[in-house]
UniProtKB/TrEMBL annotation:
GO terms for molecular function: ATP binding; protein kinase activity. Residues 1-95 form the Protein kinase domain. Gene3D superfamilies: Transferase(Phosphotransferase) domain 1. It comes from the Eukaryota. This is Kinase-like domain-containing protein. Pfam families: PK_Tyr_Ser-Thr. Keywords: Kinase, Transferase. Transmembrane segments: none annotated. PANTHER family: PALMITOYLTRANSFERASE (PTHR45756), PROTEIN KINASE DOMAIN CONTAINING PROTEIN (PTHR45756:SF1). It comes from Glomus cerebriforme.
Length: 177
């Protein structure tokens, strides 16, 4: 569920634009080394929060061009997301046309002190982050209904989870995830 665009959670068809959303989630996971929403249950409340604009945290050390690209991929309105060709072009252009800036950003990244354990061959994922017991990937029936129209949230730090604000009991629509 955490890789799915909000329109897919609402029952719409998969499109290239929903794939671009998922690609943005994957880019962020590769950079952060942490799966999206690993610290909370993957349930109706998370689906509701995603529709309300909640997105995974982007590490501050992430190069600016990648932050911008990730956020564009995550736009709540599919038409505002870049195409796969535009994503490829932006990455290619940044690496090759602005190579000095590319190198500079990654040098700055390597100079920063990370706040996590160094990774070695013997490091396990449980040493890097803690996963909520209901965020483990297995097939289970989730009832998703009456999800709101997707919106963007400009204040991710101040986002208040639906889990803390409402009771969702309407169970008219089901997806097998």
């Amino acid at each position: 569920m955490p890789y799915m665009a909000s329109e897919i959670l609402r029952g719409k068809e998969y499109t290239q634009k929903s794939d671009v959303y998922s690609f943005g989630i994957i880019i962020n996971e590769i950079i952060s080394i942490i799966p999206p929403f690993n610290d909370e249950p993957h349930d109706h409340y998370l689906a509701l929060d995603i529709c309300r604009g909640k997105r995974p945290k982007i590490r501050v050390e992430t190069p600016e061009f990648l932050k911008d690209l990730i956020q564009k991929c995550w736009d709540a309105i599919p038409e505002n997301r870049p195409t796969s060709e535009e994503v490829w072009y932006k990455i290619h252009k940044f690496i090759y046309d602005d190579y000095p800036n590319f190198v500079k950003q990654f040098e700055e990244l390597s100079e920063l002190k990370y706040n996590f354990t160094p990774i070695t061959k013997s490091t396990t994922k449980t040493q890097l982050y803690e996963t909520h017991t209901q965020a483990i990937y297995k097939s289970r029936l989730l009832t998703l209904s009456n999800l709101p129209e997707p919106v963007n949230c400009s204040n991710q730090e101040g986002f208040i989870s639906s889990r803390n604000t409402i009771d969702v009991n309407d169970k008219n629509k089901s997806f097998f995830l």
